[in-house]
Amino acid sequence: MNDNIENKNMNDNVENNNIPPKKPTVIVTIVLAVVALVATLGISLSGNNPLPAPEQPMELPQANYEILEGYLAVPVPDNSNDEEVFITNHDDFKCYLDLYQDVVIFDDSSEEVIMLEYSDILEKFNQDFFKDNNLAIKTHVLLTGHMEYCVQKVLQNNNQAIIEMNKYLYVWDDDVDAMPAPELEFVFIVLDKDITSAKYDIKEVERNVGIVEEHAIHVAKPVIYLYPEFEMNVNVLLGEENELTCVYPFYDNGWNVLAKPNGDLVDLNTGRSQYCLYYEAIGKYETTNDGFVIKGKDSAAFLEEKLAVLGLSEREANEFIIYWLPRLEANEYNYIRFATMEEINSNMSLNITPAPDSIIRVVMLFKGLDEPIDVEEQILETPERKGFTVVEWGGTELQ
């Protein structure tokens, strides 16, 4: 009875506008939400505005890193495989290195290249090193000279390094037995301590090199030094870019560096200090009848003499010898020839702005011999070294 009276009174009040009627709040809320969504997306209600383009993925920043390369100075064990390891402390590193006690790496972090063997490597990557750094190591077996790995760049995704590498597969049109024996090579990638893992992004690139003639070059390993008379910005452009297989620092339409009179360089893209520019490339050289034949054990004295004649400073010659001496001394005898400037320029032209006053380019071609052979002694000319000077050296083993 009382409920009926209350309902009747409420209805009378509504009719008399004493109590406002309930509104459809659910519908209003939906409408408002739609309007807000339209405003957020920037869509005009008249339909004139197109949908916004999807956001592009954020480009990852480049990581701080340093690369050291090396190889196993003994024949490759039969059970060797490609492997990737990530090491965060000295004890684990020593256990790893004990598996490869004959490894040799080349350290160019100072003003000159230093060849490091087992004890030197342990000292470089000591306990203090691992307080500030971690180490990613990529090991790969190079089969008969048909393969080569090269780090292109290292990016950082939070605490992970993304290591972009090219795996070059060389294809020759003739007998593969002419290629060198397999090698076990190492890439040591020094990373900051906050990077706790590494992921490798390896891209396979096939290169057809054509026919390999006797004494033909297939891969050379040059470095370039710049000595301006005063501090200046310099652009270095390699002419045959399609023949490049590996470069460091990162090469994008050439290298742009700040060069100092003492040879120090600063990569203008990254701000990292360098002392040289490095690349590898495919090249072909004709066989000639001149050159030199020397005993493997006499290689150091021979190179000290001839590199001075070719215009290299003692520091540059020292780095050259450190790099090539293990390969030369491993042979009983060596046939050695230095390519002419015309040969070098035809294989890889070098364009530098501003133009240097002097350019010295040295490429050594060598072949290991069991017995000496007769060749006509090569006549070498000493270049003039003046003003803004550019020096390049490299070499390769002839097959």
Task: Explain what the structure shows.
It is built from eight helices and 22 strands. The protein is α+β, with helices and mostly antiparallel strands. The chain has three domains: 38 residues, no CATH class; 148 residues, no CATH class; 118 residues, no CATH class. Strands 12-16-10-22-20-18-17-21 form an eight-stranded mixed beta sheet, covered by helices on one side. Strands 2-5-8-1-3-4 form a six-stranded antiparallel beta sheet, sandwiched between helices. It has a five-stranded antiparallel beta sheet with strand order 15-14-13-11-19, with no helix packed on it. α6 runs antiparallel to α7. It starts with a helix and ends with a strand. The N terminus is likely disordered.
Report the principal-axis shape: globular
Largest sheet: 8 strands, mixed
| Number of helical segments with 4 or more residues | 8
β-strand number: 22
Question: Could you tell me the mean pLDDT?
Answer: 80
Structural class: alpha+beta
Strand content: 35-45%
Number of domains: 3
Low-confidence stretches are 1-20, 42-47, 175-179, 211-216
Helix residue percentage: 10-25%
Radius of gyration: 32 Å
Order of helices and strands: HHEEHEEHHEEEEEEEEEEEEEHHEHEEEE
Q: Can you list the strand order of the major beta sheet?
A: 12-16-10-22-20-18-17-21
Q: Terminal Cα separation, in Å?
A: 114 Å
